[in-house]
Design a protein that fits this description.
Blueprint lengths: L3 H14 L3 E8 L5 E6 L6 H21 L8 E5 L3 E7 L4 E8 L5 H12 L4
Antiparallel strand pairs: 1-2, 1-5, 3-4, 4-5
Helix pairs in contact: 1-3
Length: 122
């Protein structure tokens, strides 16, 4: 497992690559626990967001199982009025959760930056 310092350093690089970066965390899927995080906004509660997003990922995996889909879940996108949220699975047990300002960034930039650095968490 990666140290919190290594996770922080990787998210620092992600933040540099994404204009409008708000926050990112590496999350344990089963517990919803934040393993490491980086936020530029103190009011953005990454701990709560990570926990709730783990529930959303687990529900999507249950849906895929119920539909007997023979594939894997790569990422999930949530587009808010002013933000882009991307959830990217990096292993069967962990995922990256990232939020960016929609006025300063776009899905292609966000997805490219997350994919570029996701290997650091495998």
């Amino acid at each position: 497992m990666h140290s919190e310092k290594q996770i922080q350093e990787t998210f620092d690089r992600v933040a540099q690559d994404i204009p409008g970066f708000i926050a990112a965390s590496l999350v344990d899927l089963e517990s919803g626990m934040t393993l490491g995080a980086r936020s530029l906004r103190a009011e953005f509660d990454l701990t709560a967001a990570s926990a709730y997003n783990s529930e959303m990922v687990k529900q999507k995996l249950k849906i895929m199982k119920a539909l007997k889909l023979e594939t894997t879940l790569e990422d999930m996108l949530l587009t808010l009025g002013d933000q882009i949220h991307l959830i990217r699975l990096v292993s069967p047990t962990t995922f990256i959760y990232l939020a960016a300002d929609r006025a300063q960034s776009n899905l292609a930039i966000v997805r490219n930056a997350v994919n570029k650095h996701a290997a650091a968490f495998t």
